[in-house]
Amino acid sequence: MSKFNRSRRGLYTASVAAMAFAAAISGSVTAASAAEVTIGVLVPLTGELGEFGSIVAKGVELAANEINAAGGTSCGTIRTVVADTAGEPDHAIRAATKMIESDGAVAILGPTSGEMVALVDLAKRKKTVIVSPYAGTITLNKLGGDFVYRTVSSDLGDGAASGLWLTERGYKRVAFLVQNEESTISPAQVARTKVEKSGIEITDYVVYNPGQPSYQAELTAVLAHKPDAIYLAGGQESGVTVIKEATAGGFKGEWLFTADLAVPEIFDAVGARLLNDRAYVEFADADKSLPEYKAFEALHVAKAGEAPGPFAANSFDMMNLVALSLQASGDCTGAGINSAIRGVSEGGVAVSSFADGKAAIAAGKDIDYQGASGPLTFDASGTVAGAYSIQAAKDGAWVNTKFYPASLFD
Amino acid sequence: MIWAQLLTTVVMFGSVYAVLTLALNLQYARGGMINFGMVAYFAAGAYAYAIVTQAPPEGLDQYLFGFAAPWWAGFLAAGLASLAFAVLTGWPTLRLRGEYLALTTFAFAEVFHSVLLNERRIGNGSVGLSNVERPDVAWTGLDDTIVYAVAALTMMLATAYVFNRILASPYGRVLDAIREDELAAQTVGKKITRIRFEVFLISAIPVGFAGALYAMITTLVSPTLYTAEVTFTVWIALVLGGERTIVGAVLGTMALIFIQESLRVYPFETVRAAQIAASAEEILTGAIFIVMLRWQPFEKLMKKGRPS
């Protein structure tokens, strides 16, 4: 037999296999068992945002444990399945598909900005709710609102807060160093507009690509214009290199970092000496004077043995909101959560924990969940209004310096 | 249930990647051309599809063109874009041989990636184009993941069929002759440069189509999806499957995607477990590659039943 015929027979066999495969799989999607309801936790545990991913996942875990301790939802106890995305949108799509189709997840919590944007279509198609505690991207202002929510404000507010701080500090000349990524460019654009309006001179606006061994080329030009301050919107890997190289290049001014660098690890990586008394960081933050936040902080210290990190409160709230939505709708699906999530977060009896909310719902009341991170009321795009903090580097740690309440940005 | 989902994912992504492996098989294993820039042709297809089908820019969008055309127009454009990019890169580079060609194609792909990343007027730069149009498949009555898996499989089989016809024809034998001994082929009157260029172009078209299908599957087109990692994945798949056979190229790709996916199949219920698994995954992948490349099980499988 010639080679050609043999191969062609192979192709026929493959075609038959394809049809058999399609027949075998169709209609075989099943839900999780009735006693428990599965929630996917999809976060970057490795890569540049790894530190945040683990804070978020632990925040969700803490909430899930509290919910289960209160007897779980009417759909059963919460079962979490956790997966790493490494910050890559394609990994996120594959992992989310797997969580929905084979683990039976009714909601997916924790994707970052780039991942959220990639998952919007999947969420709507599969009628599965996705919630992020830190995806500020402006793209979601357009895409969010139905099956897509976030317990954090949009980057528009983030950029506005940064702009406000740069103006208040009285700088005359500011340089912008911005990593070429969705989550860093969108707040930087807003901050830039604010700063320009207040008459501060922008000496440079440099968008750089991460993953380089050195940023000397970008920094040489920036430092030559002698800015009073540098606004650095960069990831943890590139940020560390930029800070070190700028200092080595003779930069004596002050820094303003964005949320990516708002972690304690930065002091070990850069060296506290280079940051103390001249570096500031801006990030979306909970209003720490709220009783709900204080209760959460106490719980976090008691259960996790440490103070909550950035976005921990937003993550805790996100899990509670999903659980309350399941409880309120009584429909244990993504569509059920989607139909109830706005209802449980506005208008009604104020509750601040899952247990209280469950009791109020059982008593036939409409509830308004007041979260640890804020009052949490979703706008048309599924976004909440947020407050922002500025922290200063003091003796090798981030210390609260300034708080901008949500009311400033409405 | 887990296995059904795993099978769908492997068939869907495996088939898309297998189209690339098949193109590489034609270019390298049969045509003797080392192309280290496969991802660029894939990306060209995906971006062309997204730009043609995308609605015109509004609000915060920074891209210039969106034609809101139907999916099939985008699909055709994807094949054309990949072909055009192959003309652009093939014409000046195909005079080069061996590692020189490898380096040049790699450089072209990196330049293309850099342009997509930094020129925000093409596809929003690093933000990418989201919510990419995908044809509605509800009329089939099946879950759309399955429909797309079948579509990918069909595309892969069609590519395999066409490439098989080409390679089994006298044209294929000319190709083999050129690879084995260029001078001899030239001496009997074969136009080497032209034939190499033709093969380069022919193999680029399905890669563009695969790019369009990949954009429909992910509904996102962004530079982070199209890095050199794609090229390396395809090369590893080709090596795994053993060179020079179509079935080998397909099996190698499927096996590679299966390994990647099966490592993630287990649902980890705690953060700690997921963290450990994420770290262990790369080690495990490396170990499996070493084993596979040392003993080459697929190549042995291919050789069985082949007349010596």
Concise overview:
Chain A is 44% helix and 19% strand.
**Share of residues in helices of chain B:** over 70%
Mind summarizing the main beta sheet of chain A?
Answer: 7 strands, mixed
Structural class of chain B: mainly alpha
Spatial gap, N to C terminus of chain A: 77 Å
Question: How many domain regions of chain A?
Answer: 2
SSE topology string of chain A = HEHEHEHEHEHEHEHEHEHEHHHEHEEE
- Strand proportion of chain A: 15-25%
Calculate the mean pLDDT score of chain B and round it: 88
Averaged pLDDT of chain A:
87
Question: Could you explain how this protein is built, in words?
Answer:
- The complex is a heterodimer of chains A (410) and B (308).
- Chain A has 410 residues and is of the alpha/beta class.
- Chain A folds into two domains: 36-151 and 311-339, Response regulator (Rossmann fold, 3-Layer(aba) Sandwich), CATH 3.40.50.2300; 156-286 and 389-409, Response regulator (Rossmann fold).
- Chain A has helices at 3-25, 50-69, 89-101, 113-125, 139-143, 155-168, 182-197, 216-224, 236-248, 265-270, 291-304, 312-329, 334-340, 354-362; strands spanning 36-43, 77-84, 107-109, 129-132, 148-150, 173-179, 201-208, 229-233, 254-257, 279-285, 349-351, 367-369, 387-394, 397-404.
- The termini of chain A are far apart.
- Chain B has 308 residues and is an all-alpha fold.
- Chain B has one domain (2-227).
- Chain B has helices at residues 2-30, 38-53, 71-93, 98-118, 120-123, 144-168, 170-180, 182-187, 192-218, 228-241, 246-262, 271-295, 297-303; strands at 129-130, 220-221.
- The longest helix of chain B is centred in the N-terminal third of the chain and has 29 residues, at 2-30.
- Chain B is globular, with a radius of gyration of 20 Å.
- The model of chain B has no long low-confidence stretch (mean pLDDT 88).
